[in-house]
Amino acid sequence: MRGVGLLAGLVLLHVLVTAAGAALLVALGYLERRPRALVLALGPAFLAGIAVLGPALILLLVLGVGVGGLALLIVDLAVIVGLGSIGLRRPPRMGVAPPSPRPDVVLSRVVLAAVALYIAFGVSSLINLPTSFDDANIWSLRGLGIYFDGRLVDGIFRNPDFAYVHLDYPLLQPVLEAGFFHAIGKIDLRLWHAELWGVFASAVWTIAWLLSRLGGSRAWVVPVAVVALSGTALGNVTLGDADVTMAVFVGCATLALGLWIDSGERRNAILGGLLLGAAINVKNEGLVLSVAVIVAAAVVALRGASPARRRDIALAAGIAVACALPWQLYVSRNAAAERATPAPWKLFSDPGYFTDRLSFLWRGLGQVAARLVEAPVWGLLTPAFLVVAISLLRARARRPVAAFYLAAWFLAALGVGYGYWVTAIGDLDAFEVRTGPRLVLGVALIAGAGLAHLLQIALSDRRAEGPLSSDPVPGA
Amino acid sequence: MRNAVPGGLVPPLLALVTLTAGVALGALVLRALAHTSFTIAAAATAVVVLVVPLAATFGDRLYGIDLQRRTLSTVIEREAREKCLADLSRPDAEGYLAFVRAHVPKDATYAVRPSDLRPCLALNLLPRTPVPSGRVDAARDWLVFDGTIPAAYARDPRRLRYSPTQVLVPPSGP
After folding, report:
1. Is the pLDDT reported for residue A469 higher than 60?
2. Which of residues 115-134 of B touch A (CB under 8 A)?
3. CA gyration radius for chain A?
4. DSSP count for chain B of H helices, then E strands
5. What is the pLDDT of residue A467?
6. Is the Cβ–Cβ distance between B40 and A459 less than 8 Å?
7. Between the N and C ends of chain A, which has fewer C-beta atoms within 10 Å?
8. What is the pLDDT of residues A162-194, one digit of tens each?
9. Which residue of B has its CA nearest to A453?
């Protein structure tokens, strides 16, 4: 009987979050109101639901409003009704996608079936896990604090005794964890890992869903599979850390903004902004990577851009900032929340701090490069991404989108390097062993999502070949 | 001067550049063989260099999941939550934790001193609420000692002793 209640709660939680995300996708014109379209969009809707509900719940917590099961339900229903009513007034905007070649369809189905098998089988290894150190001291402590009290009690969130467990870390994952325990009607930290795996799976689904809408080549399934099958992702979820959750939001946001640069559709910019806001609300690294992605998008898209483009990128950045602001304001007024990675402007008055630690920067950038080419983890994902992106820079019509992905990847790698450069952590050897693989997750996801999109472009569209006058075809 | 030499950067960067050059070389060869554009050759090469190792290692990845399922996924909920004690080399504190749970009411507030286990204990003692050290009110809060016990509390008649270094003191107020 207990198992039935748990299952019913899980179903209810996922239906509610997915419904909120589906309302957002309908409001943005992504979704046709047909059963098949809705089923195909379940994963993206779940991810979008988290992205739209998370910041709202964090705002309530920061304002001191209790967030229990009832509040979760009310916020969820408000989002569904609000966004749903917008969506119902607007017809979906569905482009006509070119058909995919038959071999591509077969290949993509085989690869996606393998990914689905891996993810489904992965659940079996994630339902009875112990709670690891960071999870216990950082994430689940806060998740349980919110679950029991429904607010940010000083004893946990403003307690100087807990300063060393990073009280500045954002709240989206703990909020989701509290909601998960409300849904299942009890605390079960062992099961929580499976939910994080579900978030990861929904992000993989989102990338596939966004790209499948473009039609044409389905070669994008290959980098999607590399990301999905990365042992680092499974390992991170096993530990209960938040890096995968942050990285998948960054990856999906980068893809959405890449689609916006390529198509000019505002809804992609809005979705990108929301997903970046979610990434910022998961981990502080999400803030650094989001700045990298939004700066890359702005620089590339604003070169000779129309006013509409400027409005779109301002809208995306504004949404991300609005989502991130409540927690960042809370932290700025919380003396117990010390930041281990100081912002650049806090160090401008001490340039010697930067110059004295240049070796840290080199080491950090070296770590990024080393981790990205770890063959068993990412294969040749990054080298392949670089080659395809650079080749597309030569095609005038697709140069902006290729330049965007390259710039976002490069700035994100620099962002990780900055973390090494200024970190207050003295034992860099231990830091590398402990955090090296997970620090590059966001950079790898940018490369993975970027390569997936660029492959679709390169193999679908003759425009990708563009005016390649410097690239004569032998025998032509 | 040491900072000027990016020694930590050069070898991994060289590895990245070499692998990228290798993929690019593969694309050039494919372009020559297939009489296609470099962009299409690069994309096709990318697909091949990614899909081949992925297919070759898929079985290993499933085996890895199965291994984790059989070795790690075996704990009960209480063990899962208390693992942070073992991570801090304090598995001995499990008994004390049960002792504290048995005596401190669920709606109580408490302070832990001088232990380095505070966040881990907080996780395990919720819904009991921890109080920051600077705001402890002995009349209202339970005191959870883990380590050196101040003389005043070591002789407190209200104290609940678990071990010489682990003592629980109830609030002095009503």
Report:
1. no
2. 118-120, 122-123, 126-127, 129-134
3. 22
4. 6, 5
5. 44
6. yes
7. N
8. 888 889 999 999 999 999 999 999 999 999 999
9. B43
The pLDDT score that the predictor gives to residue B113 is: 82
- Give the confidence band of A346 by pLDDT, cuts at 50, 70, 90: confident
Q: pTM, whole model, 2 decimals?
A: 0.93
Instruction: Judge whether residue A129 has pLDDT over 80.
Output: yes
Give the C-alpha separation, A91 to A70, whole Å.
32
From chain A, the residues in CB contact with B120 under 8 A are 136-137
Cβ-Cβ contacts under 8 Å, A158 against chain B: 132
Note whether A417 and A309 are within 8 A (CB).
no
- The verdict on a CB contact (< 8 Å) between B54 and A222 is yes
What mean pLDDT do residues A122-130 have?
89
Q: Is the pLDDT of residue A319 over 80?
A: yes
pLDDT of residue A281: 97
Using a CB-CB cut-off of 8 Å, the residues of chain A touching B141 are none
| Pair B138, B172: CB distance under 8 Å | yes
Q: For residue A120, how many other CB atoms are within 10 A of its CB?
A: 11
Higher-pLDDT residue of A445, A342: A445
Measure the CA–CA gap between A167 and A188, rounded to whole angstroms.
23
Which pLDDT tens digit goes with each residue over A427-463?
777 777 777 788 899 999 999 999 999 999 999 865 4
- Alpha helix stretches (DSSP H) within A264-380: 266-282, 284-301, 307-332, 351-356, 358-372, 375-378
Compute how many other C-beta atoms are within 10 angstroms of the C-beta atom of residue A1.
5
3-state secondary structure of A96: coil
Chain B contact set for A357 (CB, 8 A): 3
The answer to whether B12 contacts A366, with C-beta atoms less than 8 Å apart, is: yes
Nearest-CA neighbor of A195 among A184, A206, A209, A210?
A184
Q: Do A362 and B9 touch (CB under 8 A)?
A: yes
The closest alpha carbon to B115, from B89, B139, B137, B77, belongs to B89
List A residues 386-415 in contact with B (Cβ-Cβ < 8 A). Answer: 386-388, 391-392, 394-395
> With pLDDT > 90 as the criterion, what percentage of chain B qualifies?
49
Find the CB nearest B77 among A189, A380, A468.
Answer: A189
H-only helix segments in A125-265: 133-134, 140-149, 154-157, 172-184, 189-212, 221-228, 231-239, 243-263
Q: Could you tell me which residues come within 8 angstroms of residue A412 by beta carbon, excluding any fewer than 6 positions away?
A: A250, A288, A289, A292, A293, A442, A443, A446
Nearest to A174 by CA among A198, A142, A196: A142
Does residue B34 sit at the A interface (CB-CB below 8 Å)?
Answer: no
* pLDDT tens across the length of chain B (174 residues): 445 556 678 888 999 999 999 999 999 999 999 999 999 999 999 999 999 998 888 999 999 999 888 887 667 888 888 999 888 888 888 899 999 999 999 999 999 987 778 889 999 999 999 998 888 898 999 999 988 888 888 788 888 888 888 889 999 877
Identify whether the C-beta of residue A87 lies closer than 8 Å to the C-beta of residue A23: yes
- Cα(A144)–Cα(B78) distance, rounded to whole angstroms? 14
Residue in chain A nearest B48 by alpha carbon: A222
